[in-house]
């Protein structure tokens, strides 16, 4: 080589130079490297590992469905069953709840996940492609109508009410108490 750069080396040099100096469309952009990290994070949302230990990281079900034996069945003081019955009841409740939940999630969980995935995909689609454009269109139209209404009020109503105010401004009421 005689000191010249190949085409791919030149292109890589230009890309690194632009990243360091800032995008020509975003002068002095210091976040160029963060943008590539953000793009990678967006890709990783669909392929990230799931946590098999903490299955409710946002704690959305803390107070709703966290039901234990003590939350459902309780014996007040002086009304106790046999200790063996109480232990067997606890075990029966806990094991039944555990296995019924597992059986239901095995049979119905995946189809419901599919249904909820489709539902939220449709909901997102409708919101992005229908609701937001309709709301924006409505706001644009109401802005135009509000301008016309404002002109109407300032042209006709303001002078009318100002004249009525001047007419009635000299009226004085005096009240006296009769004894």
Automatic annotation (TrEMBL):
Q: Where are the transmembrane segments?
A: 103-130
Nucleus in keyword set: no
Per the database entry, which stretches of residues form a coiled coil?
none
* One Gene Ontology cellular component: Golgi membrane
Q: What are the GO MF terms of this UniProt record?
A: beta-catenin binding; molecular adaptor activity; protein kinase binding; transmembrane transporter binding
Keywords, A to Z? Answer: Cell membrane, Golgi apparatus, Membrane, Transmembrane, Transmembrane helix
Q: Which biological process terms from the Gene Ontology are attached to this UniProt entry?
A: cardiac muscle cell proliferation; cardiac muscle tissue regeneration; caveola assembly; dorsal/ventral pattern formation; negative regulation of endothelial cell proliferation; neuromast development; notochord cell vacuolation; regulation of cytosolic calcium ion concentration
| Classification via InterPro entries | Caveolin
Record has Cell membrane as a keyword? yes
Membrane topology note: Peripheral membrane protein
Q: Where in the cell is it found?
A: Cell membrane; Golgi apparatus membrane; Membrane, Caveola
* Function field: May act as a scaffolding protein within caveolar membranes. Interacts directly with G-protein alpha subunits and can functionally regulate their activity.
Q: What PANTHER family does this protein map onto?
A: CAVEOLIN (PTHR10844), CAVEOLIN-1 (PTHR10844:SF18)
The Swiss-Prot or TrEMBL record describes its family as follows: Belongs to the caveolin family.
What name has this protein been given in UniProt?
Caveolin
This chain's source organism reads: Xiphophorus couchianus
Name the lineage. Eukaryota, Metazoa, Chordata, Craniata, Vertebrata
